[in-house]
Fold:
Amino acid sequence: MNIVKKKTALVQFLRTASLIRWALLFLVMLVFLIILTPNLLVTEYAYRLGDVAEKNVKAPVSFFVEDSDATAKKQQQAGREILTVYDYDAALPARVGDNVHSAFESLRAELAATPVPAPSESDATTGDADTAAHDRVWQLKAHFEKKMGISVSSGAYKILEKEAFSREIETLILRIIREILDNGVVANKEGLLREADRGISLKTVGADEEQVVRNLKKFYGLDQAKTMVRIVAQPLVRDFNYTVINLIVDLAQRLLQPNITPNRSETEARRKKVMAAIKPVLYQIKAGEMLLREGERVTDLQVLKLKTLRKQTRNEKRYARSLGAMLLIFCLLMTTWFLHIRRRGQRVFRTNRDVLFMAVLLILFFFVPSISQVLSESLGRHLPFRLSDFATVFGIPLSAGTMTVCLFMGFEVAVTFSLILAACTTVILQSGFEVFIFFFLSGIMGGYWMQSCRERKVFIKAGLKIGGLNIFFSTAVAVYMGDFGGFTLISHWAFALMGGIGAGIITAGIVPLLEMTFHYTTDITLLELANLERPILRKLMIEAPGTYHHSVVVGSMVEAAAAEICANPLLAKVCGYYHDIGKVKKPIYFIENQQNGRNRHDRLAPSMSSLILISHVKEGVEIARQHRLGQEITDAIRQHHGTSTIRYFFEKARQQKGANAVRIENYQYPGPKPQTREIALIMLADVVEAASRTLDNPTPSRIRGLVERLIDKIFSDGQLDNCELTLKDLRKIKESYIKILNGIHHHRIEYPDQNAVKTGKEKDGSTDRQQTGVPNPAGGKDSEDSPDHLKRTGMPRR
Structure:
């Protein structure tokens, strides 16, 4: 007994211990690092110019060499693309306005400060005052010119004096200047228009604002702006005489100055910065490319290649990069852990078997790229032409891993597996993002086409579809990489097609092996198990016909209900067929198999009867293991009664021994409760179908009441606590079961005797419209021994 307990504890530890999962994760990372190890070893060669190569030297890894000429051209091109910077002085109109206003205001103030003579004073006094004011105004001419920032002719100054430095003249001058400057005035319009094809970068002085201007013709040159002064002034100065108009136009033209000027220092600084940021133009030396041949003198270019190889392999810190790659994959796996393994309600990864399966599959497909590369190199040496590196990559049948996972774990897990496998393969091959995308998309589409695999030919069909899709993906990658010559593209297509077909063939080959190794059950196996001609089901049909019929009906019921709640109908049906397979050991102890009204339990104690009934679960599990029915069916057999109580014998024992003398645990199934929706459907159908046989008159209303009462009782008893059924699902299940049971127990027409049929036929010419209960012309119902009855059943008369 202790040995059995220790064995059970060990099995439970191996199935659920988190330590096992961490060990498997470490194993996956270790294998990944081992596969990366050959890429870490780089031999250094120290040849100088003029040395003779002692042996052939091939590039151990792909690396890049700088093309100096191309780099210089690219820098010059980048410098030319920098737009010329022009400064826009947005504050210039305000400054000019301040100067003009200050100049005019000072002269107006001077005129206002000159004392005005009284009317009673003589004309001589008035003349002296005007002379004094005139002299004072002309003394301030230099001051006025300084304030204005321009020289003013004597004639213009006289007109201004005459107009008393009118505020209206000041306002018109400023308005004309502002309107023209707001449009923009540039000193060298011809130089500006040279940038018309590209535009300029207009930077506002004193503000962090900059904009690209393409329409350069809208800006005025200085001469054009002066011409525009008269055009702008024309509608504004209609009320003035010709002399004042000319004064306003002249002053406005003299006050105009460019507010858009080129900033050559800023432009040059930006060009230097962009040119310095240009990365060197590199051309790739592919892994395996010949760098030196034996007996060849080393040239400058070859020295450069060797130095670059030595420098890059040293600077890349390859060991650190590989360690970093391993850590990245570790992070990816940990993310998968939290997305799937730690998520509540997840139907996979409940045991370490699922984790072991994923680890084995990852390790297996870690070696696929390396093996494929070796085969491709061997093939390439015997071909008269050189294959591109991408062609061999497209031929790697990596989709087989995702297709296999989809069959056993479902599409959601397969997508995550495809992501991990594509990332790991990209690191192993030291490829780029385009290779990752190729493998990832090819993988998830392979999984998508394997979701409903119920025939062996689906593997080949999926392989052909993946091959066709790979051709499209490989074309996209070739266009992206700029390598799509005629022969190159054809080789890509050929390998891409072979990679897809190879994935289908590999999947078809390894799925049966994995099924046997990990005891998984695919839809293909379920279809084989659903065959009612299998020996164990035929034995059940012969030795326990009542149980067999009950199981077939339950299988049909759960299949229909599973389709309603989006469960697995095929799995539910097959589990329904086998859920009571344990009854084949002692069929006569189950009422559906008893004949002649004899019940063996009448002579047994209630406790013994309950043991016999409970034992059919354990015996069913043993039969399932012997016939290798799979873990899902074994779980259905074990859980389809949950921890429910055999209420009949429990109550009988209480009547015989007393309520306190009977332990309910002795009359309960060991469980566990249903863990999946499919098993819960079997529990409900098992109870409902058996109870429906006890109805004397199974009308639709009685069937509905029975189904609802029993399912509600099972739900209230907590038997559905561990599965994922919702109240909405239970409602759909009830309706599905009611519909099927109504079809099974529907009332049939009571067929009349032959004479009545003949009479009825003479009346309306149709036998399918007769009502039940047609009287027998002989005066009663047919008996089994009557001549007419024997004639209808095909038996000869006595």
The beta strands are 57-58, 63-66, 85-88, 185-186, 200-204, 210-213, 220-221, 260-262, 282-285, 290-292. Residues 486-518 form the longest helix (33 residues). Residues 347-520 form a domain with the Arp2/3 complex 21 kDa subunit ARPC3 fold (CATH 1.10.1760).
